[in-house]
């Protein structure tokens, strides 16, 4: 049995959580995998109630679980997810963007994954004021660059598609920080002679994601650029409602949608739960690899096939051109899986 901790979040978070919990309940013990889900508080609601965006009990329970699912958190997101990534050393943020049939996408052959460094860059919170000027410090280390580069090359090998890594940076302007990142990726590339390697400036990458998205395989980049480019990449293949992410460390992993709390559509039962369902799918893939448990990869495959199968049949939420509610979409996913 796997112990899964689940942060229910803010905005559309509770609706997405309900969807995923219903799916996990429905498949529990039916396809050879048993999960025990513990619901946890973190985010704006937790801050209001307990004075802490990331309460101690939440952190303790996460640490004792086998994996964590996290729905989006509102204003206090940085105090939850950025802290969790660093405390648990979840250094690789994996954000796939793949085109599927009957989904609005710029190019049907798009199939890429963004591997975003998750622990440093401008996200370390080193900001201060000097008179009427505010300063942010950007840190890039060789160690973090090397391990994310390795992760990207291994991902390209395992995907076994175009076998190409594109290193995205702005080393012509940030010569020290991005210079180190680009140089380190280049050095690591020598260890993977079967994988092609290219450099691209982040502005060119933003353009090429629209112009020729099918040319990408694995993008490796620093924290902030990865955040921005993955929102863009999600839009290339159907939008944020379909975009899952994994935060992976050596011993633990946390799975969450790419998007935020989307307060504009919260409580209306119109949010697309696919982003969170596909995050759970990534969790089962990770559990499968970690525990050498094939039934987990079977479940992952079933979840993915179910989501894209119903979308292909035109059962869609509003964001991707349909009229199904969050609940109706979820029921359809469940009936495809079991
Ligand atoms: P954050 O700062 O936390 O990233 P944000 O203001 O950028 O939040 P997001 O929550 O990331 O907003 O989403 C941007 C918009 O995309 C939302 O306002 C919403 O309309 C749409 N959106 C995001 N997620 C979904 C979803 N699961 N289903 C439908 N629409 C969504
Ligand atoms: Mg956003």
TrEMBL record:
Enzyme class, UniProt record, top EC level: oxidoreductase
Keyword NAD belongs to the record: yes
Cofactors that this protein relies on: Mg(2+)
Matches recorded under Gene3D superfamilies: Isopropylmalate Dehydrogenase
An example Gene Ontology molecular-function term: isocitrate dehydrogenase (NAD+) activity
Domain of life the protein comes from: Archaea
Isopropylmalate dehydrogenase-like domain ranges (all copies): 3-333
Keyword terms, alphabetized: Magnesium, Metal-binding, NAD, Oxidoreductase
Record flagged with keyword NAD: yes
Any Pfam family hit: Iso_dh
GO terms under biological process: coenzyme B biosynthetic process; isocitrate metabolic process; L-leucine biosynthetic process; tricarboxylic acid cycle
UniProt cross-references to PROSITE patterns, sorted A to Z: IDH_IMDH
EC number: 1.1.1.85
PANTHER family: DECARBOXYLATING DEHYDROGENASES-ISOCITRATE, ISOPROPYLMALATE, TARTRATE, ISOCITRATE DEHYDROGENASE [NAD] SUBUNIT ALPHA, MITOCHONDRIAL
Record family assignment: Belongs to the isocitrate and isopropylmalate dehydrogenases family.
Protein name: 3-isopropylmalate dehydrogenase
Phylogenetic placement of the source organism: Archaea, Nitrososphaerota, Nitrososphaeria, Nitrosotaleales, Nitrosotaleaceae
Gene behind this protein: leuB
